[in-house]
Amino acid sequence: MNNVFLSVVAPVRNESENLQNLHKRLIKVCSKLGKPYEIIYIENGSTDNSLEILKKLKGAKVIVLRWSSGVMKSGQTAALDAGIKEAKGNIIVTIDSDLQNPPEEIPKLLKKLEEGYDVVSGWRKKRRDNFFIRNLSKSGNSLRKYIINPGVNDLGCTLKVYRRECFEGIDLYGEMHRYIVAILKWKGFKIIEIEVEHKERKNGRSKYNWKKMFRGFVDMWQIWFLEKYSDRPLHLFGISGCLLGGIGILSLLILGILRLFKIISLSNSIWPLIAVLLIIVGLQFFIFGIMLDMLIRNYYAQGKEKSYSIKKILKV
User: Fold this and answer.
1) pTM score
2) How far is the C-alpha of 144 from the C-alpha of 187, rounded, in Å?
3) Is the pLDDT of residue 123 over 80?
4) Within 10 A of 104 (CB to CB), how many other CB atoms are there?
5) What are the φ and ψ backbone dihedral angles of 297, each rounded to 5 degrees?
6) What's the CA gap between 18 and 20, in Å, rounded?
7) What is the SS3 assignment for 93?
8) Please, is 271 exposed, middle or buried when counting C-beta atoms within 10 Å of its C-beta (0-12, 13-18, 19+)?
């Protein structure tokens, strides 16, 4: 039987100046809970001496991710996935290693979790980042809020508390760590967001840049598709195909009528080709939707995943 109450998962990349202070503060916070805990660090290709420092931290579990020829094979999402899968606690806390989210905020999130929530997400309402990062993140949050409506204001805040069952059957990849809350909301878990303190970065450099923003933008559309059409792709591609095909057929009819009454000449016109192209593309969309629908139905039929999750079974 699992006797670990709390697992703290912290990705690490080039945070050598913060690690000893972070670990000391995490131990102090977790010890006050009076329950068994573990602290897991995921070393993610640091080029400083972060790994050497991690090896000296007492009571820490360190996961070292594999790198090849200096090329990063995994980002923060993969690091979190590795740490979460290794975690033994009934409650999982994720936190960055840069100390911008103080570990002392963890008890506040745990207390809120006791009110019956499955996830308590931190909200960096008063951010202490530089102008570029702050506005880039703000723009991204606004767009994500409009497209996928995750139910929280700050998807990028790593400081979150989860019940262990939240991650059953979930694999994280790409830049999906920003969308964990959105995925869990879609699956029916009870989520709340509370304001947490955010400090200025004193040591090291931020890993957030426009490249991560672009990868996150692409993953956002994947989450949008999974949330709305993962179990019924024909509704998206079939309707789109019918719409395009319908516009093409209607265009041909209008062009034919206009030509019949000699209102226009089609001998040198590109519009008939465009109408035919719309019909062909529409037909391809419809066929693709049918094929994708069959593949997904086969996927669910093999029992690899269910299109629903059971919260509890009551005996009355």
Assistant:
1) 0.71
2) 18
3) yes
4) 14
5) -60, -40
6) 6
7) strand
8) middle
The third-level CATH classification (topology) of the domain covering 6-229 is Spore Coat Polysaccharide Biosynthesis Protein SpsA; Chain A (3.90.550)
Which strands sit side by side in the sheet containing 91-94, from one edge to the other?
Answer: 60-64, 37-43, 6-12, 91-94, 160-163, 119-123, 191-195
Taking a C-beta distance cutoff of 8 angstroms, is the pair 241, 165 a contact?
A: no
Closest CA to 159 of 204, 205, 112: 112
| Burial zone of 35 (CB within 10 Å; 0-12 exposed, 13-18 middle, 19+ buried) | middle
Structure tokens at 30: 């977790």
- Per DSSP, 95 falls in state -
Q: Is 249:257 a contact under the CB 8 Å cutoff?
A: no
H/E element holding 75? none
| Contact by Cβ (8 Å): 25, 32 | no
Longest dimension (CA), the chain: 88
Residue 53 reports pLDDT greater than 90: yes
Provide the 10 A C-beta neighbour count for residue 64. Answer: 16
pLDDT at 85 over 50: yes
pLDDT at residue 277 above 90? Answer: yes
Residues 109 and 92 sit within 8 Å (Cβ to Cβ): no
Structure tokens at 74: 């995994």
Q: Would you say residue 316 has pLDDT above 60?
A: no
pLDDT per residue as tens digits for the range 257-267: 888 888 888 77
Q: pLDDT at position 27, please? A: 95
Residue with tokens 């139910």: 151
* pLDDT tens-digit series, residues 293-308: 777 667 656 655 554 4
